Amino acid sequence: MASNPKPFITPEEYLELESRAEHKSEYYQGEIFVMAGASPRHNLLTANIVGELRAKLKGKPCAVVSADLLVRTAKTGLHTYPDVVVVCGKPALDEKEKRLLLNPTVIVEVLSKSTKDYDRGGKFEAYREIESFSEYVLVAQDRFHVEHFARQADGSWLMRETDNLESKIKLSTLDCELELNEIYYNFDFFAGEE
């Protein structure tokens, strides 16, 4: 018995569908992937990170935004909603689709059981195509653990990780630090709600 092949969706068709959709979805190589809703703890951690970054970036030519701004990678055509994006300098938005950011500087993803492998693997691989993309932070929501990847001068990536609440993540591109105890502020507020 033959199965029907999935129809190829163009990026333009995806953006049209996405503008009318009730739920967010990502686009990759002709397919649309519906995004699951975030847990209360995921939202708390995202809000903590946005709040900390906003405070640290005051007076700098950078802006921090959360989950509703699409980022597109040119080579793979991935269209995705990172949990937190920092853009420094003039934002490069797609000429036709002003909701598509082309030049993120730092991206933060809060990991979930269903996305952690993709966030570390295929999604990170696609993000690395973006010339302006310099740092990637992955934040666990089931324990105190942060992974930080920084692009080096030779194009390689250096990874550091910590689970110590007293430690800080140095975001060299932004000339600031994120304290783990601030990222995980009120961590137990939604305990048992995952």
Give a verbal description of the structure:
This protein has helices at residues 11-20, 40-57, 116-120, 122-127, 180-183, and strands at 25-28, 31-34, 62-66, 70-72, 79-80, 84-88, 100-101, 106-111, 135-140, 146-151, 157-162, 168-171, 176-179. By secondary structure, it is of the alpha+beta class. The strands form 4 sheets. A 6-stranded mixed sheet has the order 3-6-8-9-10-11. It has a 3-stranded mixed sheet with strand order 5-4-7, with no helix packed on it. The longest helix has 18 residues, at 40-57. The chain starts with 10 loop residues before the first helix and ends in an 11-residue tail after the last helix.
Quick structural gist:
The chain is of the alpha+beta class and 194 residues long. It has 5 helices and 13 strands. The protein has a 6-stranded mixed β-sheet with strand order 3-6-8-9-10-11.
Strand-residue fraction?
25-35%
Low-confidence stretches: none
Helix content: 10-25%
| Number of DSSP-assigned strands | 13
How many whole angstroms does the radius of gyration measure? 17 Å
Distance between the termini: 40 Å
* Secondary-structure element pattern, one letter each: HEEHEEEEEEHHEEEEEH
Secondary structural class = alpha+beta
Strand order of the largest sheet: 3-6-8-9-10-11
> Count the helices. How many?
5
What summary fits the major beta sheet? Answer: 6 strands, mixed
Mean model confidence by pLDDT: 90
| Shape by Cα distribution | globular
